[in-house]
Amino acid sequence: MQINFSDIDSVCKSLREGAEQLALCNAVQKNKALTCVIEELENAKDKILTANNADTENASAKGMSAALVERLALDEKKFQSMISGIKVIIEQTDPIGLVCAGWTTPGGMQIKQVRVPLGVVAIIYESRPNVTVDAFALAYKSGNSILLRGSSSALNSNRAIVSAIQEGLKKAGSDGVLNSVCLAEPKSDHSDVTEILTAVGKIDVALPRGGAKLINSVVQNARIPVIQTGSGVCHLYVDSPCDLEMAGNIAFNAKTQRPGACNAIETILVHSSSLADFMPLLMQKFAGKVQVRADERAFACAKDSPFAKDCLVKASEDDFAFEFLDMIVAVKTVDSVEEAIDFVNTHNTKHSEAIVTNDRSHARLFQSKVDAACVYVNASTRFTDGGEFGFGAELGISTQKLHARGPMGITALTTTKFLIDGDGQIR
Question: Would residue 396 be called left, alpha or beta, if left means φ above 0 and alpha means ψ between -120 and 50 degrees?
Answer without folding.
Answer: left
